[in-house]
Amino acid sequence: MEIRVNGEIRRVQEGSAVADLLAELGAAGKRVAVERNGEIVPRSQHAGTRLAAGDRIYAADRRTGAVHVFSPDGKLEHVCRPDPGDVNDALDSPSLT
């Protein structure tokens, strides 16, 4: 199925959770702020929040605002650097824990 991650279309498997997506992005276990369709997804809910076709996901490193995207073989594909204002708004949310 297709979702949009930081403005880019990405294919993920049906039934994938936010945690699965973060693993694909090379961000598993890192401090990442995630927003799904305009709502913050607390880190404690990453594993249980299932993705649906058409979801709009915004994910950013809590320190730098960037997300490093890796290919399945572990090579860096690109770095998403979102607008700093968006990152600050997401990181100011008290529900990130």
- Structure classification: alpha+beta
Q: Which percent band covers the strand fraction? A: 25-35%
Number of helices: 2
Q: For the largest beta sheet, what order do the strands appear in spatially?
A: 2-1-5-3-4
How much helix is in the residues?
10-25%
pLDDT < 50 stretches: 86-97
The H-and-E topology, N to C, reads as EEHEEEEEH
* Rg for CA atoms: 12 Å
How many strands, which pairing sense, and closed or not: the largest β-sheet? Answer: 5 strands, mixed
Instruction: Report, as a whole number of angstroms, the end-to-end distance.
Output: 28 Å
Gross morphology is: globular
Average residue-wise pLDDT:
76
- Please count the beta strands (DSSP E, at least 2 residues each): 7
In short:
This protein has 97 residues and is an alpha+beta fold. The chain contains 2 helices and 7 strands. Mean pLDDT is 76; it is low at 86-97.
How would you describe this structure to a colleague?
By secondary structure, the protein is α+β, with helices and mostly antiparallel strands. It has helices spanning 18-24, 84-91, and strands at 2-5, 8-11, 32-36, 39-40, 56-61, 67-70, 76-80. The protein has a 5-stranded mixed β-sheet, with helices on one face. Strands 6-7 form a two-stranded antiparallel ribbon. The longest helix is centred in the last third of the chain and has 8 residues, at 84-91. It is globular and about 30 Å long. It starts with a strand and ends in a 6-residue tail after the last helix.
